[in-house]
Design a protein that fits this description.
Elements lengths: L62 E2 L14 E6 L7 H16 L3 E5 L15 E2 L2 H4 L20 H11 L3 E6 L1 H16 L5 E6 L15 H20 L4 E7 L6 H10 L4 E3 L13 H12 L1 E7 L24 H15 L5 E5 L2 H5 L5 H19 L5 E6 L2 E6 H4 L11 H10 L9 H32 L1
Parallel strand pairs: 2-3, 2-5, 5-6, 6-11, 7-9, 7-10, 8-9
Antiparallel strand pairs: 1-12, 3-4, 11-12
Helix pairs in contact: 1-10, 3-4, 5-6, 6-12
Length: 474
């Protein structure tokens, strides 16, 4: 084996203090400097049988996805089911197409049932009969947005009814395409299947445009969303730059995680403020957002703002409502900011021309970019390989650019979020040149962030304990 030497040569000792103000350590919720003692492991592949103990013990490995030499199911006896749940996301049709074609062409499966309109398609009272799928009727669906099977929110809590329907349809390989809530429902379904002693594989394909599923490098549709959102920001920048006191405000997806907003700010090169759920901000006061926006207008005469839909919720009155999936209904931060900005500058008799757009539904319904379509194809194929090998209670995802099997119980412990101490957020600050914090009481903000982090960790540990208890009962 070739032994590579990655030693980096230095011209000499570094003695000049950097003008970039970052943290010296973690725990400050501020991006930190990178030390010369920080490395990335070159060989990411490991083999459990060669290192049975220590930090590389088997429980720390993620099983590689892909076709196995021996499979569990006889393809001639397989009836596969596919359903899509939750909101729209670019790539749903690409995944459906990939699953159908891999089942049909690679394994010879001839009974593939498409469940219409999410989990609700399992219920008799809904009146939606399954659709027979084959390469002919899915061949071109990747060229349109949305989902060929339709989707809906809710219904995943009716586990017994869903498993009754799966049994009635004779399904023994079930593919469930959806986000965090959908996959929790998929795990409940798989547990009910196990309780009944049935041999039915349940494999999830994680769909979350917000990129908020734990462990995986990125979720399908995310890249397309950033592409479309960047086009919107570029357009609003032209509006703002062409006006006296022009301000462009764009609201993007991101309920709890600001990945789309952050990536769009970096990709557009035109964003001056990026507001995300993970980094609180004040509106008023000497270090509030509105004051910094005023300074930007005075200096550059225009500004572009991106706000994730879940940002600044503490500034608004809560709706106190949830949707059919149990998600908290968010107050509209976009229109709130629009009105507050107009009011602020009017009171100061400063002329502005504000344009506000929310391209959310246009982005969600988009056809995928080429790279996203490629990703969807490979996700679908690897999901089929997993199911045919009898893998169950897993999602397929990309980790370190490798396709792996991740237990649903692990993937849904907590949400993936933008780390304010990460290089991603640091690069966003470099791109926007916005202040690290736009709050008037930094100590109070850090205490609130630490409390939120502790609560998130406690919830994840509680879920993990529940998973371990279920395992110990078997």
């Amino acid at each position: 084996m070739i032994k590579y030497d990655f030693t980096v040569e230095n011209l000499g000792e570094c003695k000049v203090k950097s003008p970039i103000e970052l943290s010296l350590d973690h725990g400050t919720f501020r991006a930190a400097y990178v030390k010369d003692t920080s490395f990335v492991r070159y060989h990411v592949n490991s083999f459990a049988d060669s290192t049975p103990e220590g930090p590389d013990a088997k429980e720390n490995f993620m099983e590689k996805a892909g076709p196995r030499e021996y499979i569990y199911f006889n393809p001639a006896h397989v009836t596969a089911g596919i359903c899509t749940c939750g909101g729209l996301c670019p790539g749903l049709n690409d995944v459906i197409r990939a699953v159908v074609r891999c089942l049909w062409n690679r394994y010879g499966v001839r009974r593939i049932r498409g469940i219409q309109f999410g989990y609700k398609g399992f219920f008799n009272e809904s009146g939606y009969e399954p659709v027979d799928l084959n390469p002919d009727n899915v061949d071109t669906i990747h060229k349109i947005g949305g989902t060929f099977l339709g989707t809906s929110r809710g219904g995943g809590d009716r586990t017994v009814d869903i498993v009754d329907s799966i049994e009635r349809l004779g399904i023994n390989v079930m593919f469930i395409i959806g986000g965090d809530g959908t996959q929790r429902g998929a795990l409940d379904i798989a547990n009910e299947i196990e309780r009944r002693g049935l041999k039915i594989a349940v494999v999830g394909i994680p769909k979350t445009v917000d990129n908020d599923l734990q462990f995986i490098d990125r979720s399908f549709g995310f890249e397309t969303a950033v592409q479309k959102a960047t086009q919107a920001v570029n357009s609003i920048h032209m509006e703002a730059h062409s006006q006296i006191g022009g301000i462009g405000l764009v609201k993007l997806m991101g309920r709890e995680s600001g990945f789309i907003a952050t990536a769009t700010a970096l990709a557009s090169h035109e964003t001056n403020f990026c507001l995300i759920p993970e980094v609180p901000f004040d509106l008023d006061g000497p270090n509030g957002f509105l004051h910094h926006l005023e300074q930007r207008i005075e200096k550059r005469h225009h500004a572009v703002i991106i706000v994730a839909e879940g940002a600044g919720q503490e500034l608004l009155d809560s709706t106190g409502q949830t949707d059919a999936s149990g998600n908290k209904k968010l107050a509209d931060i976009g229109t709130f900011l629009r009105d507050k900005i107009n009011e602020y500058f009017k009171q100061r008799n400063i002329h502005i021309n504000l344009k506000y757009i929310d391209p959310g539904y246009e982005v969600r319904a988009s056809v995928t970019t080429a790279n996203d379509s490629l990703y969807c194809e490979r996700l679908g194929n690897n999901a089929v390989h997993a199911a045919m090998a009898g893998k169950t209670k897993i999602v397929v995802g990309l980790v370190h650019e490798k396709f792996v099997h991740i237990p649903i119980a692990m993937a849904t412990l907590t949400r993936n979020m933008v780390d304010p101490e990460s290089s991603l957020w640091r690069d966003c600050l470099d791109a926007t040149l916005q202040p690290v914090y736009m709050v008037n009481n930094e100590k109070q903000m850090l205490e609130r962030l630490q409390k939120n982090a502790d609560e998130t960790e406690a919830k994840a540990l509680a879920r993990l304990e529940k998973v371990n208890q279920m395992k110990s009962k078997k």
